[in-house]
């Protein structure tokens, strides 16, 4: 906008400079610049405002002064008078903001200069009669047309949209006003030229025209307001739910008053129930929020309820009792009015921060808000709406479940009844943020609604399920006897119900839950304390590996506190590079030669020493730290592998295997990050093996498949870890572009003792051979296990029998020794 104003000012200055040497059209009388400045000041100080929603366009009698100046003053005096007079009116009387005032002055000067050009193209100095009259009419029309077009373009830029439907009407009105003003001005010039004493005869029709012009504008505005009120009330009454109706009312109140802020405070019939606030501003909206009113808000409600009309708080006012109310909301000016049912106030309506050219709210705005309040009260007055309002205030709009406020209220009521054995289940979804971040909030909302249905189906009708916020749910169990078993059975049903995948928007999604259980205890006195205990138990369940439930015990507080401290230390560990990578060899069963190294993250804690993944990885997932940890491990693994390939020619094709967490599998940037690390370290893509778990893959199979295909095109090898422990791996083996299957340790552990495990492992190997997949057997700890796997033609294995996870230095020593052994075997064979 400032660039536009500057460009317009430069154009106006250049055009005015071209006209500076022109003499007045008539030799006498000569109207001085200060006389024109006075005329322009009066014209712009008392204009007619035409409101276009959030912007305001003004029409004035400036054309009268322009035409008089075209005849009786030099172009230089006309431009100077216009500049000074209009600037004084805009800044001192109408108090426009600097940007608007600068634009209006610039466009006035440009329009006047354009009018002079048009006038002088039609008439020459000394011309009189119809030719001069026609030239004046053309000049006035050009002035009005240029002004309207410049204002329209500016409104379009400021608002980000055009209102072309209103442009023809605005142009027609501007041209009509310009020609009418020009006619009066021509008459005034002719009279003054004949006898300067006759100027008094012109004053009466000019004032009459000014008042008529102003009255027309006011009448037109009233008509627009009535039309707007009619359409607003129809839209509000037809709203599908009360929340939408409130939004419509607030939007209409802002638009009708050209305000930046609108608020409705719904009052409750019970004094202790608080109020419901709904607010819409330029950048945000908050609807039907239960809250306790501040003292300033209570004072505003009382004052508005005691008055028949609206309260006007304009800018520049003297000290007022509601200044603190306005200050709480950062309102420079405001209008307040009570919405009533019969004689009782049911709500407070507030609009504030007047936008547009008009500096602040006026008495006309106050009367308009009073009319609007009368219509709005009708919408809010019936009892059914009140019930709907209360329902929406205490229920979650997404799932239809009670919200935290209603849940806490019911828990408090249950605790007050000593005959009830009250228990709470606190349900938190595991890794929900990963789904929300990768698939978007729409998919996340659909998933939450589907989870709510399963949770509701797992409890009895007398129990209460609620959504506490985000991905947290609460369940209140009410029994007259001991319900410890009932609570655990309910929790087990919920955990089991969430094991099956969800089919949403054509996608198969997987989400699990951790549940905390808290029973009424002698020391538990409030609903918040019982909820807090259930929350602590839920975190304990997460610490034990997620996808399970835990019953609250007092010592859990210490565990949760330590877990919190560990979480803070883990965040610092990333910053301080305390995370290291160890490597476990993967060997060929045929000759026990090392073919690859699996990278395993470790935490070298400054005081606890070496911390194993099982102690901190679940916490890292919960804190959403898996992506930065994964990037650290990947870069370190690729760097080491490339170094070892170069240092030991016998291991020139050494591979390195890196585990992917579910968050990394669902990361859309994974392929780009892998490609970047390979390019940075110089490792060949076929030397990198990326391992994913079945649970990580099944969280969103469609997204997983897309990611794996892009990694395959990159040349990276892909492995499915812990094969056989999941529920759906067989159905996806043909779909996922896998290269390697890793048989879980649980099947290998009893391979030499259990016939069923032997049969199952043999079936996996045959299936892998059919699908042309390499098999790695994990967890080999005894030579008997290795021998059985050789007999089953298993190609690769890893485990403590061959080597434990090694530090980078020990891993390099291992490779050096095996490299020497390979050279010795080759020499002996030769």
Task: Give an overview of the whole structure.
It is a single chain. The chain has four domains: 224 residues, no CATH class; 153 residues, 2-Layer Sandwich (Beta-Lactamase); 156 residues, Alpha-Beta Plaits, CATH 3.30.70; 253 residues, Alpha-Beta Barrel (TIM Barrel), CATH 3.20.20. The chain has 30 helices and 24 strands. It has an eight-stranded mixed β-barrel with strand order 16-17-19-20-21-22-23-24, surrounded by four helices. A six-stranded antiparallel β-sheet has the order 5-4-3-8-7-6, with helices on both faces. The radius of gyration is 40 Å and the shape is elongated.
Features:
single chain; 830 residues; alpha/beta; Beta-Lactamase; Alpha-Beta Plaits; 4 domains; eight-stranded mixed barrel; six-stranded antiparallel beta sheet; 30 helices; 24 strands; 55% helix
CATH architecture identity of the largest domain: Alpha-Beta Barrel
Q: Could you state the CATH homologous superfamily of the largest domain?
A: EAL domain
CATH class of the largest domain: Alpha Beta
Largest sheet: 8 strands, mixed, barrel
User: Strand sequence of the main sheet, in spatial order?
Assistant: 16-17-19-20-21-22-23-24
**Helix content range:** 55-70%
Structural class: alpha/beta
Q: Any idea what the shape is?
A: elongated
How many β-strands, per DSSP? 24
- What distance lies between the first and last C-alpha atoms, to the nearest angstrom? 85 Å
Strand content: 15-25%
């Amino acid at each position: 906008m400032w660039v536009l104003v500057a460009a317009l000012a430069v154009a106006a200055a250049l055009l005015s400079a071209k006209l500076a040497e022109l003499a007045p059209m008539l030799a006498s009388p000569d109207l001085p610049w200060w006389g024109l400045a006075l005329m322009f000041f009066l014209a712009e100080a008392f204009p007619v405002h035409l409101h276009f929603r959030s912007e305001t366009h003004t029409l004035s009698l400036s054309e009268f002064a322009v035409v008089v100046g075209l005849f009786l003053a030099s172009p230089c005096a006309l431009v100077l008078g216009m500049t000074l007079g209009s600037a004084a009116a805009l800044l001192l009387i109408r108090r426009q903001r600097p940007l608007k005032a600068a634009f209006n002055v610039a466009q006035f000067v440009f329009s006047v200069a354009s009018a002079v050009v048009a006038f002088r193209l039609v008439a020459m100095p000394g011309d009189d009669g119809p030719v001069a009259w026609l030239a004046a009419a053309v000049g006035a029309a050009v002035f009005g047309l240029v002004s309207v077009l410049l204002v329209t373009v500016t409104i379009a830029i400021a608002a980000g949209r055009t209102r072309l439907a209103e442009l023809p009407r605005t142009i027609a009105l501007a041209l009509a006003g310009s020609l009418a003003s020009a006619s009066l001005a021509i008459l005034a010039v002719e009279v003054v030229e004949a006898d300067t004493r006759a100027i008094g005869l012109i004053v009466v029709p000019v004032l009459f025209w000014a008042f008529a012009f102003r009255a027309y504008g006011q009448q037109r505005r009233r008509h627009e307001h009535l039309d707007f009120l009619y359409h607003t009330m129809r839209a509000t009454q037809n709203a599908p739910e009360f929340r939408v109706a409130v939004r419509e009312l607030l939007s209409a109140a802002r638009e009708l008053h050209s305000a930046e802020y609108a608020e409705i405070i719904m009052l409750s019939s019970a004094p202790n129930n608080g109020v419901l606030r709904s607010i819409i501003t330029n950048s945000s909206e908050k609807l039907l929020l239960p809250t306790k009113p501040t003292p300033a808000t209570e004072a505003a409600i009382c004052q508005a309820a005691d008055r028949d009309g609206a309260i006007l708080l304009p800018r520049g006012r003297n000290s007022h009792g509601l200044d603190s109310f306005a200050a709480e909301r950062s309102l420079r000016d405001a209008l307040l009015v009570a919405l009533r049912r019969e004689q009782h106030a049911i709500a407070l309506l507030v609009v504030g921060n007047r936008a547009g050219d008009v500096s602040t709210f006026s008495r006309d705005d106050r009367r308009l808000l009073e009319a609007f309040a009368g219509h709005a009260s009708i919408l809010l007055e019936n009892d059914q709406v009140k019930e709907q309002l209360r329902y929406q205030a205490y229920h979650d709009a997404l799932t239809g479940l009670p919200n935290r406020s209603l849940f806490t209220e019911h828990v408090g009521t249950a605790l007050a009844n000593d005959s009830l054995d009250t228990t709470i289940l606190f349900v938190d979804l595991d890794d929900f943020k990963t789904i929300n971040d990768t698939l978007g909030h729409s998919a996340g909302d659909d998933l939450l609604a589907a989870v709510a249905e399963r949770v509701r189906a797992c409890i009895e009708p007398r129990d209460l399920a609620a959504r506490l916020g985000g991905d947290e749910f609460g369940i209140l169990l009410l029994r007259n006897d001991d319900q410890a078993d009932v609570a655990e059975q309910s929790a087990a049903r919920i955990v089991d119900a969430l094991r099956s995948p969800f089919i949403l928007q054509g996608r198969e999604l997987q989400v699990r839950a951790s549940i905390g259980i808290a029973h009424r205890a002698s020391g538990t006195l409030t609903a918040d304390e019982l909820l807090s205990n259930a929350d602590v138990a839920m975190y304990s369940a997460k610490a034990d590996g997620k996808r399970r439930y835990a019953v609250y015990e007092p010592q859990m507080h210490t565990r949760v506190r330590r877990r919190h401290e560990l979480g803070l230390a883990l965040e610092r560990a990333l910053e301080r590079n305390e995370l290291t990578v160890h490597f476990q060899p993967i060997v060929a069963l045929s000759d026990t030669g090392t073919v690859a190294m699996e990278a395993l993250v470790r935490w070298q804690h400054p005081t606890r020493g070496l911390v194993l993944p099982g102690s901190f990885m679940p916490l890292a997932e919960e804190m959403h730290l898996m992506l930065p940890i994964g990037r650290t491990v990947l870069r370190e693994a690729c760097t080491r592998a490339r170094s070892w390939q170069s240092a030991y020619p016998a291991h020139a094709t050494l591979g390195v295997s890196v585990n992917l967490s579910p968050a990394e599998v669902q990361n859309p940037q994974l392929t780009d990050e892998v490609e970047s690390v390979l390019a940075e370290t110089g490792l060949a893509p076929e030397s990198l093996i990326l391992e994913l778990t079945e649970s990580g893959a099944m969280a969103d199979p469609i997204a997983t498949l897309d990611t794996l295909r892009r990694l395959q095109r990159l040349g990276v090898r892909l492995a499915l870890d812990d094969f056989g422990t999941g529920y759906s791996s067989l159905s996806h083996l043909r779909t996922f572009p896998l290269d390697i299957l890793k048989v879980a340790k649980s099947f290998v552990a009893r391979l030499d003792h259990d016939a069923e495990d032997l049969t199952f492992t043999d079936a996996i190997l045959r299936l892998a051979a059919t699908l042309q997949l390499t098999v790695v057997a994990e967890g080999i700890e005894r030579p008997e296990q290795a021998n059985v796997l050789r007999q089953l033609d298993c190609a690769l294995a890893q485990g403590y029998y061959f080597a434990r996870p090694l530090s980078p230095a020990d891993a390099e020593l291992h490779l050096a020794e095996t490299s020497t052994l390979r050279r010795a075997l080759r020499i002996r064979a030769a």
